[in-house]
Amino acid sequence: MEDRLMTIKQLAEYLNVNDRTVLKLVSDGALPGVKVGNQWRFRKAMIDTWLDDQMLGVMPRYLDRPRLNGSPRRMLELASCFQPDHIISELESETRNTIVEELAGLAARLGLIRDKTWFVGALIERENVMPSAMGNGIAFLHTLRRNPEQVARPFMVLGRSHRGVDFDALDGHLTHLFFALGLKFEELYLPWLHKLSQMFAYEDTVKAILDAPGAAAIFEAVAAAERRLEPEASAAHR
């Protein structure tokens, strides 16, 4: 029952609002839902997580302003879940499992996760199914199963290793940059992974981060990669 699917009418009753309010929220991309045929359906567990986020003030910010001639692009800005203190400038670890431990340790110290042991196990479980190293020196770690109650707020942490670590990368090379995602909503994972893979498709982006002298410079290099990916959106906000 806790993970049951609800219709617009059932959700409106659950939230104590009218049907039109629910339809507007989901159409605007503010409410997590999925269309089955031409009917909206909502998972109760995800709605409860969404409610928690509203109460905690965890509000997603979007890159594009609404456009009159089409749906706005709904993609979280990096700054909404990634900051300079989310970065380990030089990882001490030299193996896959200890890399995961070090990244999870940072997330725990920042209060981003409620259970470090869970996060470590969930990341390693995903690595055992399919390595997250995409080649080009990059790995995007995330959990196989989503446990939104374990994530205090959506986040991304980054660890850098100049010497590199064997992470079973697709190209057979060592991995130097390790991004670990902790996102509450299932729908955010594929868009985020797609966005990050586009940002780091350029070798000069990876080099800029490896050459950066510290966390602040690393953060700015990542932000520059985001601006490069979204030149129109960036120009619109200036």
Quick take:
The protein is an alpha/beta fold and 238 residues long. Helix content is 43%, strand content 16%.
Explain what you see.
The chain starts with a strand and ends with a helix. By secondary structure, it is of the alpha/beta class. Strand 2 (34-36) and strand 3 form a beta hairpin. Residues 56-74 and 232-238 have low confidence and may be disordered. The protein is elongated. It is 43% helix and 16% strand. Helix 1 (8-15) packs across helix 2 (19-27), helix 4 (96-109) packs antiparallel against helix 5 and helix 7 runs antiparallel to helix 8 (215-229).
Distance between the termini: 47 Å
Apparent shape: elongated
Question: What's the arrangement of strands in the largest beta sheet?
Answer: 4-7-8-6-5
Rg from C-alpha positions? 19 Å
Q: What is the number of E strands?
A: 8
H/E topology pattern? EHHEEHEHHEEEEHHHH
* Helix/strand structural class: alpha/beta
For the residues shown, what is the average pLDDT? Answer: 82
Number of helices: 9
Q: Sheet with the most strands?
A: 5 strands, mixed
Question: Percent helix among the residues?
Answer: 40-55%
Set down the secondary structure blueprint.
Blueprint (H helix, E strand, L loop, with lengths): L4 E2 L1 H8 L3 H9 L6 E3 L2 E5 H13 L30 E2 L7 H14 L6 H14 L3 E3 L2 E4 L13 E11 L9 E8 L3 H14 L3 H9 L3 H15 L1 H7 L1
Parallel strand pairs: 4-7, 6-8
Antiparallel strand pairs: 1-3, 2-3, 5-6, 7-8
